[in-house]
Amino acid sequence: MQLIDNPDQASWDALIERPMQSNHSLEKTVAAILQQVRTEGDRCLVELTKKFDGITDPSLCIPVPSADPEISSDLKRAIEIAYNNIYQFHLRQQERSEPVETMPGVKCWRKSTAIEKVGLYVPGGSAPLFSSLLMLAIPARIAGCREIVVCTPPQRDGSIHPAIIYAAQLLQIEKLYPVGGAQAIAAMAYGTETFPKVYKILGPGNQYVTMAKQLISQQVAIDFPAGPSEVAVLADATANPDFIAADLLSQAEHGPDSQVILATNSPALVEQVQSVLGRQLNELPRRQIAEQALEQSKSVVFEDLETAMQFLNRYAPEHLILNLEHAEKWAEKVTNAGSVFLGAYTPESVGDYASGTNHTLPTNGNARMYAGVSVDTFVKKITFQQITPQGLESIGDTVETMAAAEGLEAHRRAVSIRRNKIRLQT
Among candidates 9, 8, 17, 424, which has minimal Cα distance to 261? Predict the structure, then answer.
């Protein structure tokens, strides 16, 4: 990790830049896939699944079986606990809006209505992220989405990983679509003979999936722009360097384009963490991936924690760990982060799987303007108003005056004609 000592604020924008990759060739490749799926439908999906996944005779839709999939009882129990925790946390996110009488006889209110058809992308294949299915489908179910389409890349034999199947059973999902990559995003966005067209697409994925979501966002809503995974740790001299190293590596092992940041006021802590990182790296199966991520990651030493917090709010990390004394006090100062983890014994891994919060979060600085997935992600807000004759009299002069000032005579008359009718009746 690169060590940066007490950088001045003029350099912060350069420091918070994420690793950049050229997207021109990627965009061209993905755009061609999207167009091909849009025009050729299922036939194209079959050919691309054969080509990219090595499946001889791919199926585009697999009914979720009722029989128990072949996973260990320990894993089943873990999935069930995670399901319950995530469900409990998201259930409390439902909102009930009370009517507001803004003036006598003028009543306004708002209602949350589920997005009817949503598409969920769940990374699969060699690393099946069944936890992502829980994180996406649970709030969709709570929101009341009528149709949930789940795409996940097939395994080498064309099947779907049994852990994903078990999660689907808990979620009462009847069908799974074993299609991955940009072609899965296209199928959900445009619809094919097998795939229903959805109104919003959510879920993490590789660079092809991410680019596909960006390109189809003019036709279909998406959760938010996404990029490689990241974590920032704010720590003081009391922090355990073993804990910090483990947290940094838990994100670095996601991919070579991931980024991790350690911000602290303790130069000694940075030295200790750097030493521990080398030892812990040697114990990781994904060591090479983590090493590449660390090459583009940073340890930044500040004179005080206040400045370090200001820096991290500018950075706007996907995950922010506050590993310091009085973490609750420092949590009040967080303005930009996807999800925050307080104290020495709250690793980011817990939020990834089972604490209850959602792990589908904005990356690449998008936490400045986006929130992570929640029940709100799966609903739209519709406003209502109802005005009595007396209410129209009380608000009428205001509307007529404003409409006239904007030169919109029909707007003014829509009120004045009604007011005249009211006066004739009284």
Answer: 17
CA proximity to 173, closest of 181, 164, 182: 164
- The phi and psi torsions of 12 (rounded to 5 degrees) equal -65, -40
The Cα 158–Cα 59 span in angstroms is: 7
Residue-wise over 147-176: b if at least 16 C-beta within 10 A, else e?
ebbbbbbbbeebebbbbbbbbbbbbebeeb
Render the burial of 88-119: b for 16+ CB within 10 Å, e for the rest: ebbeeeeeeeeeeeeeebbbeeeebebbebbb
Q: Give the pLDDT confidence of 60-117 residue by residue, as tens digits.
A: 999 999 999 999 999 999 999 999 999 999 999 998 889 999 999 999 999 999 999 9
Which of 106, 180, 90 shows the shortest CA–CA distance to 373? 90
Active site residue 319: yes
Catalytic residue among 161, 254, 319, 359: 319
pLDDT digits (tens, 9 = 90+) for 172-231: 999 999 999 999 999 999 999 999 999 999 999 888 999 999 999 989 999 988 888 999
Pairing of strands 221-222, 259-264: unpaired
User: What's at 183, amino acid-wise?
Assistant: Q
Q: At what angle do helices 130-143 and 162-170 cross, to 10 degrees?
A: 20
How many Å apart are CA 305 and CA 326, to the nearest integer? Answer: 12
Strand ranges for 8-51 from DSSP E: none
User: What structural domains and CATH numbers belong to the chain?
Assistant: 24-65+93-102+115-223 (3.40.50.1980), 227-371 (3.40.50.1980), 388-425 (no CATH)
For residue 407, the SS3 value is coil
- Respond yes or no: is residue 318 known to be catalytic: yes
- What torsion do the CA atoms of 409, 412, 416, 419 make, to the nearest 10 degrees? 170
What is the value of pTM for the model shown?
Answer: 0.93
- Sorted by sequence, the CB contacts under 8 Å of residue 20 that are 6+ apart come out as none
What type of residue sits at position 71? I
Q: Are 176 and 150 in contact (CB under 8 A)?
A: yes
Active-site position among 318, 326, 328, 406: 318
Alpha-carbon distance 378 to 131, whole Å?
A: 18
214/109 Cα distance (integer angstroms): 33
